[in-house]
């Protein structure tokens, strides 16, 4: 996806936000992991998602994941948003916060909600500050 975005036109910045990586007991991939008392510490898949992609040096991108590599994300209350989406929505429109500052606040909120078991992960290659609401 990142490679395709880089060649889709004159994009100045690509931002991908992924709120995924849930433990699903019905999925065979997770059966042994979901039974682990500390499932948030159990890797879901092997290498990081971007380990094999080379992007052009003039490309700017930010990949925002709901949890650290190799960990899972917590759902929120039934019918509601996940910890990550709730925290992201709480800070997305805050004025004068650049992307890094916003994600720091999102991370602080998620760490508190999850008893320090989930932390979002930001992977970026930015050459300037980006604001959702400047």
Helix content, binned percent:
10-25%
Q: Roughly what is the average pLDDT, rounded to an integer? A: 76
Shape: globular
Low-pLDDT sequence parts: 28-48
Span of the ends, CA to CA: 28 Å
Per DSSP, what share of the residues sits in E-state strands of 2 or more residues?
Answer: 5-15%
Total of DSSP H or I helical runs spanning 4+ residues: 4
CATH architecture: 2-Layer Sandwich
The Rg value, from CA coordinates, equals 16 Å
Order of helices and strands: HEHEHHE
Largest sheet: 3 strands, mixed
Task: Using brief descriptors, characterize the structure shown.
single chain, 134 residues, alpha+beta, Alpha-Beta Plaits, three-stranded mixed β-sheet, 3 strands, Caspase-like_dom_sf, Caspase-related_regulators
Description:
It holds the Pfam family Peptidase_C14. It comes from Rotaria sordida. This is Peptidase C14 caspase domain-containing protein. InterPro entries: Caspase-like_dom_sf, Caspase-related_regulators, Pept_C14_caspase. The structure is a single chain. This protein is an alpha+beta fold and 134 residues long. The chain has one domain: Caspase-like (Alpha-Beta Plaits). Helix content is 25%, strand content 11%. Helix 3 crosses helix 4. About 16% of the residues have low confidence.
